[in-house]
Amino acid sequence: MAAAYDGSVDTTLEDLPIRDDLRGQSPYGAPQKHVRVQLNVNENTHPVPEDVAEDIVASIRQALTTVNRYPDREFTELRESLAGYLNGGLSADQQLTPANLWAANGSNEVLQQLLQAFGGPGRSVLGFPPTYSMHSILASGTGTRWIPAQRDDEFRITPETVVAAIAEHRPDIVFLCGPNNPTGTPLDIETIRAAYDATDGVVMVDEAYAEFMPTDAPSAITLLPGRPRLVVSRTMSKAFAFAGARVGYLAADPAVVDALRLVRLPYHLSALTQAAAVAALRHAPAMLAMVDDIKQQRDRMVTELQAMGYRTYETWSNFVLFGGVADPHAAFEALLDQDVIVRDLGIPNHLRVSAGTAEETTAFLDAMRRVAADQPPVRVDA
Ligand SMILES: Cc1ncc(COP(=O)(O)O)c(C=O)c1O
């Protein structure tokens, strides 16, 4: 009797003629649980304001009237809007044009396209773990060799460290992450400059959390003039509270954008996504209004976790990495029992928590005090 096609035949990945380098790998993804206080994936915990949402809906409604046609493959209006948004923070000699901008379905897709164009079999990308875990996964998916290099104390990287790692490994691409996920560590502009000067390859700075940096801290975007191999990726997922819309982008020399056109799927950004993103960018100040509140909640977490006896690290992002957790797995479960979810990244004695609303932050801190009473903080060295 033929087995129903319901998985009962028990085919596994091992039975399929999958690429050898993908065998035994696990897909990326934090658990998507229904928990009251969700502080595990560095989302913006504040929803899009109602009036802005209505304007976005009106734009999507308009886009739907021509959705029988393929969308603008060059997403020109979106690139104009992104240039306008970034130019607000740049000096006259740093201004970007739409030709400097590129976008895709989340900055993950932007980075994937970058690796497709500049990485691939026989090429390598240097990164500095612990860092955003998708960097190595995207490398693996595109057949690019991932080279992990060491960070300095407190998860920092100095110009000397980055130059030494480049000299040792001669990578085709260097991935820097500033502020770094999962540690929150700032990335000094001098380190980016030194990395660029030390390589003939592409230097990519992932600035997913740029809007949470101190307002006077320069972005890597300020280094773009005269540096055609420098690429700065950004996202609307975090500060813009747009994670579910999937819009990431990069700023670079127009020649880099030409390279990405060679590997992108035609019409990769749907007309609905383009319409939603352009509308959201029209309301940038309202969309970003919560950034200061989130930074305050983050700083509150740092102060109160320290008072409980945990070790925290300098963070310029919307999350806090903290050490001294005797048993991170048990602490994660104990928080989950109190309807709070954080991230256990497998860094011994550490957990990461995203800043929430004031109430969510209070709920997390109260739950954490109960955890600390059960398993007192331990000493950690980083
Ligand atoms: C450093 C970093 N880069 C990129 C991303 C992905 O962002 P997007 O939602 O734009 O794909 C994240 C998400 O957590 C991140 O932490």
Task: Explain what the structure shows.
The strands form 3 sheets. A 7-stranded mixed β-sheet has the order 2-8-7-6-5-3-4, with helices on both faces. A 3-stranded antiparallel β-sheet has the order 9-10-12, covered by helices on one side. Strands 1-11 form a two-stranded parallel sheet. Helix 2 (76-87) runs parallel beside helix 8. The longest helix has 18 residues, at 291-308. It has helices at residues 50-64, 76-87, 107-118, 133-141, 159-169, 189-198, 254-261, 271-282, 284-287, 291-308, 328-337, 358-374; strands at residues 37-38, 101-104, 124-127, 145-148, 173-177, 202-206, 230-235, 248-252, 311-312, 319-323, 340-341, 350-354. The protein is α/β, with parallel strands linked by helices and 382 residues long. Pyridoxal-5'-phosphate is lined by residues 42, 106-108, 132, 177, 181, 206, 208, 235, 237, 243, 248.
List keywords for this structure.
382 residues, alpha/beta, seven-stranded mixed β-sheet, three-stranded antiparallel β-sheet, globular, binds pyridoxal-5'-phosphate
What's the story with the biggest beta sheet?
7 strands, mixed
Q: Count all strands and give the number.
A: 12
User: How many whole angstroms does the radius of gyration measure?
Assistant: 22 Å
What pattern of helices and strands is seen along the backbone? EHHEHEHEHEHEEEHHHHEEHEEH
Distance between the termini: 60 Å
Number of helices: 12
Estimated share of beta-strand residues: 5-15%
Helix % is 25-40%
User: Which residue ranges are poorly predicted, with pLDDT under 50 across at least 5 consecutive positions?
Assistant: none
Question: What compounds are bound to the protein?
Answer: pyridoxal-5'-phosphate
SSE-based structural type: alpha/beta
Shape: globular
The strand line-up of the biggest sheet is 2-8-7-6-5-3-4
Summed over residues and divided by their number, the pLDDT gives a mean of: 95
